[in-house]
């Protein structure tokens, strides 16, 4: 059966980037003789700014937030049940998104590397200070969240499994966890000690400022695994990219893996940048992260061999020709950048092979 890829689109620049994703995926399918089915969610999800533009009523915002979260959760659960292994999602309102991440127990993976060091950043999105729900009284927002031993173990296990896949044959001996554990009555520390012993690894649970100080003073070994709480990893991601990757976040995508058993095996790909509502309709949003996500999905989930390398070569060539969007110092539109990349990708296939395609299916 032909692979199916899920597609969820938010407001802001979401529609433009969804078109970029479909164009690149279609091109890679054709050059690889693959047939890929796209299941697009029927709901057009809000961004934070589209919500505020629609209403200033707190109750209405809360209700629309919940509706978006409920719908997207159902979409992910349905796609997982049907055997879909990947969803590409453009940016949506963070409050809706984190409700889904908590319910489906998500972790985010990003490999950040320079010539000497390779850091696997694992972001715990399933629990903690970014999760939970709000209640309102006049002049007060009460936000309640929780930490769970079961979820903590799932996050650690997922980090260790990904590290072994990333560096096959190498023993994962040490993991750093950056959490505000001093606020949790010592409970998180007890859990981590027990989990580390069970998995046979050394886990250093440290305050975020301690992790930052050590990164500055000691640098990183050649292989590092850092599990970050949401409030630390969200802020530090762009800093680590700059320090280690020498790359802008607008060019990056990340993977969110759901650990809940009902959606096991489903990976959500997203750009690191947000909805960029101020750029909507101007045809100048940076498409590089979306192009890279399309290539990763094509290769890992749709059988398009060598899609990542071929796409990176095309991006390097286009960049060397100065064809970039304004945020990268160029003068070209989103469409012009994508046209240039697609043209190069179209000539990378073997003309003697049958032509593949991308088909739309009902979500």
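-> sequence recovered:
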């Amino acid at each position: 059966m032909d692979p199916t890829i899920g597609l969820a689109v938010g407001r802001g620049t979401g529609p433009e980037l969804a078109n970029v994703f479909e164009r690149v995926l279609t091109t890679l399918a054709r050059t690889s003789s693959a047939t890929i089915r796209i299941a697009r969610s029927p709901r057009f999800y809000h961004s934070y700014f589209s919500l505020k533009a629609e209403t200033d009523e707190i109750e209405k915002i809360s209700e629309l937030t919940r509706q978006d979260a409920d719908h997207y959760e159902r979409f992910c659960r349905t796609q997982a049940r049907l055997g879909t292994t990947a969803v590409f999602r453009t940016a949506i309102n963070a409050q809706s998104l984190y409700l889904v991440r908590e319910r489906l127990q998500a972790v985010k993976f990003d490999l950040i590397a320079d010539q000497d060091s390779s850091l696997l950043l694992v972001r715990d999105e399933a629990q903690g200070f970014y999760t939970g729900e709000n209640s309102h009284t006049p002049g007060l927002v009460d936000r309640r969240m929780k930490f769970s031993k079961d979820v903590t173990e799932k996050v650690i296990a997922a980090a260790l499994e990904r590290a072994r896949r990333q560096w096959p044959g190498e023993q994962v001996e040490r993991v750093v966890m950056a959490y505000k554990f001093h606020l949790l009555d010592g409970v998180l520390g007890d859990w981590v000690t027990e989990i580390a012993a069970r998995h046979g690894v050394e886990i250093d649970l440290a305050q975020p400022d301690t992790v930052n100080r050590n990164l500055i003073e000691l640098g990183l070994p050649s292989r590092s695994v850092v599990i970050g709480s949401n409030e630390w990893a969200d802020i530090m991601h762009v800093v680590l990219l700059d320090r280690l990757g020498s790359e802008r976040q607008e060019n990056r995508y990340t993977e969110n893996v759901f650990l809940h058993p009902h959606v096991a095996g489903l990976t959500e790909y997203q750009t690191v940048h947000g909805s960029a509502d101020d750029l909507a309709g101007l045809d100048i949003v940076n498409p590089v992260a979306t192009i890279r996500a399309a290539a990763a999905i094509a290769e890992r989930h749709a059988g398009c061999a060598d899609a990542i390398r071929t796409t990176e070569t095309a991006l390097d060539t286009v960049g060397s020709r100065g064809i970039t969007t304004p945020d990268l110092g160029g003068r070209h539109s989103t469409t012009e950048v994508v046209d240039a990349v697609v043209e190069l990708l179209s000539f990378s296939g073997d003309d003697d092979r049958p032509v593949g395609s991308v088909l739309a299916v009902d979500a």
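The mean pLDDT is 93.
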